[in-house]
Amino acid sequence: MREFFDIIIVGGGPAGLTAAVYARRAGKSVLVLEKEGFGGQIASAPKVENFPGFAAISGAELADRLFSQAEALGARLELEEVTEITSGAVKTVTTDYGAYDCAALILATGMRHRTLGLAGEDTLSGISYCAVCDGAFYAGKDVAVCGGGSTALQDALFLSEVCRHVTVIHRRAAFRGDPILVDALRKRENVSFALEAEVVALTGRDGALEALTLRHLDGRLETLTVSGLFEAVGQMPQEVLSRQLGLADEGGFLRAGEDCRTAANGVFAAGDCRAKSVRQLTTACADGAVAALAACDWCAHMS
Questions:
Q1: Catalytic residue at 287?
Q2: Residues 6 or more apart whose Cβ sits within 8 Å of residue 51
Q3: Picking from 35-39, 48-52, 115-119, which range would have the lowest pLDDT averaged per residue?
């Protein structure tokens, strides 16, 4: 017989962990399933400066605090990948380890990294999406960061402290990220900018990245020799489960309003996977709280 939980939460990022905290405080049995690592992508952020109550905190520390809080309250947290969900009065969640039943389901599956779509991108070593995770491997080497948002700028700042030289590549003339980060980068002597340019090809040798081909706005091609490319060109929803349930919009995001309720009874959406205009750490946590309370109401309605 499968284990039964009042609420199963798919995704162990800020939204999912916040939902676990609220649901456990309401006395519900809770299982959180995460396929990669608890804390979500914020765990790899070198510094978080826009979360209320903390002037600055590392993403890893914040993620650890969220995890510890949910665990201390009695939530069960498992590293398992969800492969299938069967929706009904009782929902069945199948993972690569087994299957579980629940009355209410919260999807907090977050986002995945967008790629450049270039040949060799998924086979060459030297391609990374996490400067904090992989930056040390490129100490004393030349690298590039591709992107124009705050994540790309933060990555470049971090890498400039360990790498010989960092080239920031952005297809526009101005950055979308925080101006304070741009100002900080411009003061670094080992940082240069390739603006109004895009990476159009990767060159490798013996399976390792060796150079990038850049195409400038005027059509000019340039070869940039680097040992590593850090991509920060946006994110896409983890849409497999939402499409499986028929709850995804055209972009793959879960259709749910500010009440976090989807069209499926007892299924709720929280965090960056939800269709909305603002995706920030604070809004992910807010979604987690709203979804958890709505799920608790659903459980009470079903009992």
A1: no
A2: 57, 62, 281, 282
A3: 48-52
Which residue of the set 96, 133, 259, 297 is catalytic? 133
Structure tokens at 244: 């499986």
Catalytic residue flag (residue 260): no
In which residue are the tokens 């972009």 written? 251
Catalytic residue from among 130, 142, 178, 249: 130
State how far the alpha carbon of 135 is from the alpha carbons of 34, 179, 186, 275, in Å: 25, 23, 20, 32
Catalytic site includes residue 249: no
> Percent of the chain, pLDDT > 70?
100
Catalytic annotation, pick one of 6, 64, 102, 134: 134
Predicted confidence (pLDDT) per residue in 169-202, tens digit: 999 999 999 999 999 999 999 999 999 999 999 9
**Which residues pair with residue 133 across a beta bridge?**
none
Supply the pLDDT for residue 16: 98
What is the pTM (predicted TM-score) of this model? 0.75
